[in-house]
Amino acid sequence: MADPRVGSASVSEVHLSPDLRKAVVSLVLGGTEVEQAATLEAVRNAKQFLKHQLTERLQLFRTPDLSFEAALPAKLGARVPQLLKRIKRGRPKLENGPEEKPIS
Question: For the whole model, what pTM was predicted?
């Protein structure tokens, strides 16, 4: 999406109703609480656009009605990008101690 209000957002899971008419999309949101609220609102406003994109790309006859929710509380969501950077570096930091050195 090209909406400037949409910051860092990743889909963590999707729950479909048994009749496949409704889908609840859980999003992991990055940034501050204000940025997360703006991102969630922008995604909710773009619901019809996203539904149309799903219909075209997946070639569905009937696309479920989408609803969006934050997967993590705002405090944890703000830490996700930081934690992902640590994982990519391969050196996870211990909570109460020095960084572990990778075994070579």
Answer: 0.64
Dihedrals phi, psi of 66, to nearest 5 degrees: -95, 140
Query: Residue 14, exposed/middle/buried by CB under 10 A (0-12, 13-18, 19+)?
Result: exposed
Question: What is the mean pLDDT, run by run of 10 residues, along the chain of 104 residues?
Answer: 78 90 90 86 92 88 90 66 80 58 51
Homologous superfamily of 9-81: K homology (KH) domain (3.30.300.20)
31: alpha, beta or left, given left = phi > 0 and alpha = psi -120 to 50? left
**62/33 Cα distance (integer angstroms):** 35
